[in-house]
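Q: What structure does this chain adopt?
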Amino acid sequence: MSGKFYNIFVKRLIDLIVAVSAFIILFPLFIIMTILLAIFNGGTPFFFQRRPGKNGQIFKVVKYKTMNDKKDAEGNLLSDAERLTSVGKFVRKTSLDELPQLLNVIMGDMSLIGPRPLLPEYLPLYNVEQARRHDVRPGITGWAQVNGRNAISWQQKFAYDVYYVENISAALDLKILYLTFTKVAKSEGINADNVATAEKFTGN
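A:
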């Protein structure tokens, strides 16, 4: 099966079947996580963010909220590390914060596997090669995630994203899926040293 045929005719069908099946099977876990995060986050278990999808089209991605909204004396939000709750830390470590994105996959905004959807403010900062990451649907996991996630540089991430776009195939998706499960089990590459989230991309 050619990569082009797979990408155009097969990948979306697999995404839909797997995402719907996973959502049904994991529904009890969704309920438990929602209740726990609602308690620890003061009633806000989810958050929505505008992200660019295929061809740069903006959509709203849904994730579990792993940080509270605590502020300092001046009314400014505390650092990400200070706002990361104990439950949120576990949810992020196990990548359970990504589970609600199954709904994005079902709606067609995302794929199970593809470049991670980043911030809209990054769009004008990409060079021509890096912008190719938007030639396909963004994914819950991807080639960059199994090769370092937040522990590698932006340039490395984008190089992995473009590699995926150029080499998309059923075999590569299966490899990424397998590596995702092994990485999550070992909690590898979740964050860069001493930070709760990756640093912002500021351009080349």
